[in-house]
């Protein structure tokens, strides 16, 4: 009789039915058990791997706990700020919100005339906006030299690059 390839699952099924196993089938089961022992890990190397795995898991938990503690501290700080603002508002001590200075009409007319009522980037005449070359938040001013006309699309595109 020729060589028969038998899988461990087939042999286990035969064993579960109570059928007798051939020598070949017994060897298949023995090899499979040895393979599982090697994979599951037995011996010193496997013990080292399990220990390292446990250490890594502990490190991950510690990092996760530290991040959670940071988040809780940040939330507590923000809640404290909100409470302080509410208390100031109740007593009338609240600071006025930042109000941006309007672009003077003379400057707007001068920029419009200089840029000929067109977007400096694409030349469109639709949905024009006055754009600060250097943003006010970064120290820019409302002067003719710091303003230009841009259509809404070009202004948004420029804003994404600053």
Write the SSE topology.
Layout: H1 8-16, H2 23-40, H3 44-91, H4 105-114, E1 128-132, E2 147-151, H5 152-159
Antiparallel strand pairs: 1-2
Description of the structure:
By secondary structure, the protein is mostly helical. It is built from 5 helices and 2 strands. Strands 1-2 form a two-stranded antiparallel ribbon. The chain is elongated. It starts with 7 loop residues before the first helix and ends with a helix. The mean pLDDT is 85.
Summary of the model, kept short:
By secondary structure, the chain is mainly alpha-helical. Helices cover 57% and strands 6% of the residues. The chain has a two-stranded antiparallel sheet with strand order 1-2.
Order of helices and strands: HHHHEEH
Spatial arrangement of strands, main beta sheet: 1-2
Shape: elongated
Poorly predicted ranges (pLDDT <50, ≥5 residues)?
A: none
Number of helices: 5
Distance between the termini: 80 Å
Mean pLDDT: 85
The major sheet is characterized as: 2 strands, antiparallel
Oligomeric grouping of the chains = single chain
Radius of gyration: 38 Å
Strand content: 5-15%
Label the structural class: mainly alpha
What helical percentage do the residues reach? 55-70%
- Extended strand count: 2
Can you give keywords for this protein?
single chain; 162 residues; mainly alpha; two-stranded antiparallel ribbon; elongated
